[in-house]
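Quick check before the chapter quiz. The format below is the same one you will see on the exam, so make sure you can read both the input and the output lines.
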Amino acid sequence: MLARQKLDVLLDRFAEIEHLMSSGPEPAVYVKLSREYAGLEPLVQKIRALIKAEDDLAGARALIDDPETDAEMRELAELERDELNESVEQLSQDVRIGLLPKDEADANDAILEVRAGTGGDEAALFAGDLFRMYQRYAELQGWKVEILSASEGEVGGFKEIIASVSGENVFARLKFESGVHRVQRVPATESGGRIHTSAATVAVLPQAEDVDIDVQDSDLRIDTFRASGAGGQHVNTTDSAVRITHIPTGIVVAVQDERSQHKNKARAMQLLRARIYDEERERAANERTEARRLQVGSGDRSERIRTYNFPQGRVTDHRIGLTLYKLEQIVAGEGLGEVIEALIVDYQANLLASEDA
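Here is the expected output.
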């Protein structure tokens, strides 16, 4: 049974946030409060439901134990007790999961980066397949995907594509996709029918809010240059491409997709802020060795996390030993949610086991 005192502390904090938000705080403070409010609200609803179910259960048990309760009423109370026992058990588990340590970036939008790895043209085609998989999954979630930068492969797909994904709990659902994705299939250009193995790397970075990170203009070096396209196509005659260097960290980003220098600069800043934020989070995570141990491979982007085997129609996530013979649905984005849910459940189970220990 969960300690009522711990739950009361959370309920008190929720009430305090409501009061503070209604008192007209500064905009930056309000943003922080509203983010905390949104994060706590689902848990508070579960806690309130749990407390009510526990109180109702106590009432049903009192009726059953009362010698003056008639047989018909006792029978009804016993049925209610059994139903309430199940409700309390489920709600307790939900609340326990809700009380697990939260990644403060879970509610953030994300930067999705997909890059072709080993495998030449086939790797670029696979990178394109992965990006379309995420694009379709995002569409099904009601999220918005905006391409920030793209470098197309020689025969299709992408050498590299970077996009902004915005919506509800984007980073929470995509963060375990970071790592090396491997594909085994017969390329369209392969006349002998031989299976080739190639790879692409995915990185998912939480987008930084203004309240998360402060980037000073004095820390930036901004260079402009002439954009160039594949094969001489779409080449600008003005210096519209933008490269931004963050001097303290040495992080460099460049965007040249738009013909407008202003738009390219805005996109480059968005990407830069995400990479600085990610580096800060990585450093903090490295200081929490236990938290790193519990990650489902989301921190190491050099780790091979998943294999897509086309001849056998299967997808295997190596971190949790999950194999699904639903390759077409997963690559189409419609079946990806099943993999993501399994990763989240495994992560939560590990955290619960750690809390119990």
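If your answer matched, good. The longest strand covers residues 196-206.
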